[in-house]
Amino acid sequence: MKKMLALLLVGIVVLTAACSNNNTSNNGGNNGANNGAGDATELTVWAWDPNFNIKAMNLAKETYEADHSDVTVNVIENAQNDIVQKLNTGLSSGTTKGLPNIVLIEDYRAQSFLQAYPDMFYPLTDSFKASDFADYKLGPTSVGDVNYGLPFDSGVTGLYVRTDYLEQAGYTIDDLQDITWDQYIEIGKKVKEATGKDWISLDPNDLGILRVMIQSAGSWYMKADGKTADLADNAALKEAFETYKKMIDANIVKTHADWSQFVANYNSGDAASVPTGNWFTPSITAAEDQAGKWAIAPLPKLTNNEASVHASNLGGSSWYVLNVPGKEKAAEFLGATLGSNVDLYQKLVTDVGAIGTYKPAATGEAYTAANDFFGGQKIVQDFADWTAQIPSVNYGMNTYAIEDILVVEMQNFLNGKSIDAVLSDAQKQADSQLK
Fold first, then answer.
1. Which among 12, 26, 38, 48 is placed 20 to 30 Å from 387, CA to CA?
2. What is the residue-wise DSSP string for 56-97?
3. 3: phi then psi, degrees, rounded to nearest 5
4. pLDDT band at residue 1, thresholds of 50, 70 and 90?
5. 24 assigned to some structural domain
6. Its pTM surpasses 0.85
7. How many domains, the chain?
8. Which residues, at least 6 apart from 49, have a Cβ–Cβ distance to it below 8 Å?
C-alpha cells in the first residue's frame, strides 16, 4: 500500500511539473518570444510592401533560421499607416500586448516615436557597428549616442532620364553630369521642344522633391535640434520653392495624382526624366520595351547654394526592436543578418532590388554588376557611391505636419504670393501648430 502511494505521489509531481512547464512556455509567448533556457524563440516582425521590405526581411529570416533551428521569425504585412496607428495606440496605452518584436519605421517618422516613447524601444548600439552604415542614416535612428534603429534601405536619389529623348534634343547623358537645377530646367525645355514630351511628372500634393533639394544642401524643415521649425530664413528651402516654380512656369511638368499615374507617366513614355529615390528602378524597368533607353545621372544640385551636393535622399526606413520579451534575441537576429551579412546584401540587390546602407557590401558582385536595361551602367555602384555623399540632417518629429503647411503655401506662391511672405506665414503656422 505504501509503495503504491509513493508511486502515486511521484506521478502527481511529474504531472504538475509538466503542466507548470507548459504554462511557462505559453505565457512566455506574450509578445512572440519564449525565453526559458532551451526553449524555442518565436519573433514577430511588422513591415509594409510585400515586394520590397517584406521580401527583404524574409531573406534575412531564411539566412538566420538556416543556422538557428530554435528560432522562428514570422513576418507580418501591415500597411505603413496601419503600423503607425497600431504603434501609437499600443505604446500610448502603456501596454505592449499584441505588438511585434521588430518593426519597420520610416526614417522621417522615427524621431516622433523615439522621443514620444523613450522607454519602449530596445537599444541596438551593441548589436551592430554603426560606423559600417551610411552616416546620414544614423541621426534619424538614434537618440544621443544610443542607436535604436538598424539602418536599412537607402533612399539615395538619382536622375533617371530617357537617353533617346535627350539625343533628339542634341544632348547625351554626359551633358547631365554634375548639373544644377537651373541647367536641368533648360535642358528640359529643349527636350520638350524637340520631342513634345514633358520633362518631369509632379504631384502638387507631394513635395518630396523639396525634401530632396534641401537635404542636398544639408538643410531641413527643422533646425538642428529637430524641434524648431526652420522655414522663414531657410535659404535652401527658398531656392527649392523658386526652382519648383521655374519648372511649372517652363511648362515642362506633367502632373499626377497618385502612384499609379506617376509610374504610368514614365512607362507610357509621356515624361522624360525623374529625379527620385533608387527604389523607383523596378517601376522604370517594368516597361521592358524601353530597355536600353534609360540612364541615371547624379542628382542636380541647387544653383545658388554652395553647400548643395549632387546627392540626396528620398524615403528610406530602418528596423527597430520593441522593449518586449524576446528583445535580446530580436536584436541578435538583426545584428547577425542585416547588421553584418555582406552576402545577404548581395541577395537584397539581386532578388529584391533593395540597396542597403551597409558600407562593406558595396564592393560585392551585385553592387558592381552592369545593368543591361540602363545600357550597361553599373547603377547600384553609382547609387552606393552617392549614398556616401548624402548630407546628414535631423528630420525631427514633424516632417509631414510641416509639409501639409507647405503644400498650401506652395499653391499660394504659384498663384502670385511673394516667396518671403509664403515662408514667413509657413513659419508662423508651424510655430503655432507644433508647440
1. 48
2. HHHHHHHHHHTT-TTEEEEEEE--HHHHHHHHHHHHHHT--T
3. -65, -40
4. very low
5. no
6. yes
7. 2
8. none
User: Are 110 and 74 part of one and the same domain?
Assistant: yes
Place of cell 535659404: 235
Which residue type, as a one-letter code, is found at position 143?
V
Residue corresponding to grid cell 501591415:
78
305 Ramachandran zone, left/alpha/beta (phi>0; psi -120 to 50): beta
Q: What is the pLDDT of residues 172-212, one digit of tens each?
A: 999 999 999 999 999 999 999 999 999 999 999 999 999 99
Classify residue 374: in a domain, yes or no.
no
Together in a domain, 202 and 234: yes
HSE, side-chain direction, 13 A CA sphere, residue 193: 10
Question: Domain of 303?
Answer: 157-312+406-433
Residue 357 near residue 151, CB atoms below 8 Å: yes
> For strand 41-47 and strand 102-106, is the pairing parallel, antiparallel, or unpaired?
parallel
Contacts of 68 (CB under 8 A, 6+ apart): 333
